[in-house]
Design brief:
four-stranded parallel beta sheet, arsenate reductase (glutaredoxin) activity, 4 strands, 36% helix, Ptyr_pPase, arsenical resistance, oxidoreductase, 5 helices, EC 1.20.4.1
């Protein structure tokens, strides 16, 4: 493998939670091999629960911001990872040799609507955060299998 970092875009519906967590984990855990980005089909702003649970895990994503894919025009990605079903269905075509893969994670804001307490909500976000971490830890090797 060369010294060139792999440019990975984590794409989600609103770029507020799952894709932001994935970008944060990739920055924290894989900075030597991955140049991570995140964007959304829409722009929903940063999710405060996502920022809180990532901070609990020692990863500060408060400096990241919600953005549309168009804001990353000109960046040639090696891999695009859709992290939700809607983004996978709406994923635009990427030119060149960009590999597009889908690795779906449940939507914490949707799951949190059924929670009765703040602790239950945070538990949902923490579970998805940890699932995303496990996926990011498998990168870039796992991409060959997808």
């Amino acid at each position: 493998m060369s010294d060139k970092k792999i440019k990975i875009l984590f794409l989600c519906t609103g770029n507020s939670c799952r894709s932001q967590m994935a970008e944060g984990w990739a920055r924290a855990l894989k900075r030597a091999t991955i140049e991570p980005y995140s964007a959304g089909i829409e722009k929903h702003g940063m999710n405060p629960y996502a920022m809180k649970v990532m901070g609990e895990a020692g990863v500060d994503i408060s400096g990241q911001h919600s953005k549309l894919l168009a804001e990353l025009a000109g960046v040639v990605f090696d891999v695009v990872v859709t992290v939700c079903g809607h983004a996978n269905e709406q994923c635009p075509w990427f030119p060149g040799k960009t590999k597009v893969v889908h690795v779906g994670f449940e939507d914490p804001p949707a799951l949190a609507k059924a929670c009765r307490t703040e602790e239950e909500k945070l538990a949902v976000y923490r579970r998805v955060r940890d699932e995303i971490r496990a996926f990011v830890e498998s990168l870039p090797e796992a991409l060959a299998e997808l």
